[in-house]
Amino acid sequence: MPTPRVLATPAAEATIDLLRDENGPLMFHQSGGCCDGSSPMCFAKGEFRIGGNDVWLGQIHGCDFFMSTSQFEYWQHTQLTVDVTKGRGASFSLEIPLGVRFLIRSRLFTEAESKDMAPVMQGEEYLEQQA
């Protein structure tokens, strides 16, 4: 089995379950900074427009996970783990009313993991597969 590029902690999965119960299918996009910092943003599936400048990294707990192509250039050698912590984030992410926020923990892939990476897709390729 290929090395996954993105994972979720049990606490993040429990939060995803709560949000999915309220909002239906979900998706994530790793924010690139600015006013919302650099945090994973959770949206109802389809509420964030994916395009040619996005990369699909895989799924966490049944939710597609994306980031911008330019950000992926920097983070392609790291495994991302979505976690959750108490406190209000400065974003439009769905978990904010729960009094928690998603965050990313990262680590570099080992040499062995780097040789067996899960594939990524450009946003346009992802959208074509969904059509």
Automatic annotation (TrEMBL):
Q: Which Pfam families match?
A: DUF779
Q: What is this protein called?
A: UDP-glucose 4-epimerase
Q: Which organism is it from?
A: Hymenobacter daecheongensis DSM 21074
